[in-house]
């Protein structure tokens, strides 16, 4: 993509607006990220395939939104070897670029394995995520010397959208969990109010004191009360 070309800038802006609207729509994280990686391949000429690699707090690796099954293979190689551009971008650097994997000293095991699979260059962008989850948006090319400054610029924009989608997903899960907790505590309070003829404040105070005395989380105490709803 030539960013000096007005039509290219317009197309990029149009796709970015579409991705931004996705966040407001009831779509899954996988669907949004799939749109990001698909658009990256379409709008960055040198990018033949793309995907997102997440590394969770426990060291668990997860491949998402691959545009081709080869991306998952490359992610697994990096997981097995503990080295590679996606690995470095997610955990260490902001942008990791390699112009020719046939002459790449940074990853002595990964680079030859990638070349065997036809991948000659890659461009990875760190995703700033939450909850001790590291991530990278990864672009791969079947030819060497594929990348320029414009590719890095456009890729950085796509990476920002991918990171925003991941963080929005985390926020949504937190909100859902919070609502579920509130509902269960409310159910437990209602049961206690009906069973013992007390008001809402007294019912919540009873739940709180039971939690403190037993050193059990309030939500777990509430669930126990709900579970005994049918008991005489």
UniProtKB/TrEMBL annotation:
Domain ANTAR residue range list: 165-226
SUPFAM superfamilies (UniProt xref): CheY-like, GAF domain-like
A Pfam family the protein falls into: ANTAR
One example GO MF annotation: kinase activity
Gene3D superfamilies: 3.30.450.40, Winged helix-like DNA-binding domain superfamily/Winged helix DNA-binding domain
Alphabetical keyword list: Kinase, Transcription, Transcription regulation, Transferase
Keyword flag Transcription: yes
Keyword Kinase included in the entry's annotation: yes
Top-level taxon of the source organism: Bacteria
SMART domains: ANTAR (SM01012)
InterPro entries hit by this protein: ANTAR, CheY-like_superfamily, GAF, GAF-like_dom_sf, GAF_ANTAR, WH-like_DNA-bd_sf
Descriptive protein name: ANTAR domain-containing protein
Organism: Mycobacterium avium
